[in-house]
Amino acid sequence: MGKGGEKGGESGEPEPQIRRYTWEEIQKHNLRTDQWLVIERKVYNITKWANRHPGGHRVISHCAGEDATDAFQAFHINPTLVQKFLKPLLIGELAPGEPSQDRDKNSQLVEDFRALRKTAEDMDLFRANPLFFSLYLGHILVMELLAWLMILYFGTGWITTLILSCILTTSQAQAGWLQHDFGHLSVFKKSSWNHIVHKFVIGHLKGASANWWNHRHFQHHAKPNIFKKDPDVNMLHIFVLGDTQPVEYGKKKLKYLPYNHQHEYFFLSDLPTSAHPCVLPNPNHLDHDQTQVLGGKFTFPPPLWSQHWNRERETSGQGSHFALLITQWFLESHWFVWVTQMNHIPMEIDSEKHRDWLSSQLAATCNIEQSFFNDWFTGHLNFQIEHHLFPTMPRHNFWKVKPLVKSLCAKHGVLYEEKPLGKAFVDIVG
């Protein structure tokens, strides 16, 4: 039944007769050189096309041999447009007797979640408020302008440097949350506009690589906290994570660092990446691979500031310049790391378990209690559950969909975890 369908996917020509496949057959095609997946009961051969996937080959390859319907809907703001790329890859469909979900997943849970998504669409929760994002960008630019004016009027004394560090830390952290919005295509209706503004915010306000961010972050969303699929938890040279990895690598006696003290050196884990820019003559010339090697976590000074910093270094010596860089990077690194990890590190981290979309995201994410400060401080990542379920939803609508998500979780007995901000930070160390 199975083999003849491959020809249609490779040639791009429709088969004269629809091929029918079982899940047993489809699940065999999950190798790097042989990849099939299912979207809305249609079977696609993505083997040759994966390398041309705009989101990167890894994120789509992680779904090989599985039902990728919910992941497909989660990542694409215009699924109808994307269908034209899928049509040449179509090789058949699920056999009539096969369930829509693979690996004995709870079909009622999957159907209820898809109904919830349809309800969110009908409520216009995927439509962004232009005023929200305009004001958000405005308050970042105001802080950047204020920093420039302080330099102009007060020079580079130590007091000015410390105040500047706090202002720039805040503006850079908030720019990090804003680039995240555009990177997820959650602001404009057209993907191209989101990509353009994303490159401006992450490139010119952050001094980081949009390609690097896309390459890693979409993998994280597709398979959060899954070893070998989520790059955010593949950190063996620094940390062992979850319940099974410490045991597994303890038996193998693999040891790069004293992991029994990792809860202590976690506080210093971002200092090496903060030091790299001080010895780089021009961070704007770094390519994608170099950004990856150095960690990529908003490591380099924003291009809008690099010319000023070079000039100040020549005229006023190294002291205040070095202090400004180190203080800002130290504060921003910890702001970024603690906020992003409070939702994931305390949750389940393990190997692939082939859960449905809702269950996989809830197992790996938790929420932080809502308040005006928490919303602003975390860039609405305190609604991590809703963000992971609907990554293209504008963040100002998370609070509206939250009751629907909690109700669905309660109906199916899926744990919906929410905690205070302070406890979330403590749980990281725990």
Structure description:
By secondary structure, this protein is mostly helical. Among the domains are: 20-104, Cytochrome b5-like heme/steroid binding domain (Flavocytochrome B2, Chain A, domain 1), CATH 3.10.120; 130-342, no CATH class. The protein has 21 helices and 7 strands. The chain has helices spanning 6-11, 23-26, 57-61, 69-75, 79-86, 107-122, 130-154, 158-183, 191-205, 210-222, 244-251, 262-265, 271-275, 288-293, 303-316, 319-341, 357-364, 372-378, 384-389, 398-412, 421-429; strands at 20-21, 30-31, 34-39, 42-45, 90-94, 367-368, 418-419. It has a 5-stranded mixed β-sheet. Strands 6-7 form a two-stranded parallel ribbon. It is globular. 35% of the residues are buried.
What are the key terms here?
430 residues; mainly alpha; Flavocytochrome B2, Chain A, domain 1; two-stranded parallel sheet; 21 helices; 7 strands; globular
| Model regions low in confidence, pLDDT < 50 over at least 5 residues | 1-9, 271-301, 307-317
Q: Indicate the multimeric state.
A: single chain
Shape: globular
Biggest beta sheet attributes: 5 strands, mixed
User: In percent, how helical is the residue content?
Assistant: 40-55%
Q: Tally the helices: what do you get?
A: 21
Order of helices and strands: HEHEEEHHHEHHHHHHHHHHHHEHHHEH
Our estimate of the beta-strand percent is 5-15%
- The mean pLDDT is 84
The span between the termini is 52 Å
Sequence of strands across the biggest β-sheet: 1-5-4-3-2
**Radius of gyration over alpha carbons?**
23 Å
User: Structural class, please?
Assistant: mainly alpha
β-strand number: 7
Keywords: Fatty acid biosynthesis, Fatty acid metabolism, Lipid biosynthesis, Lipid metabolism, Membrane, Oxidoreductase, Transmembrane, Transmembrane helix
GO molecular function: oxidoreductase activity, acting on paired donors, with oxidation of a pair of donors resulting in the reduction of molecular oxygen to two molecules of water
Membrane topology: Multi-pass membrane protein
Subcellular location: Membrane
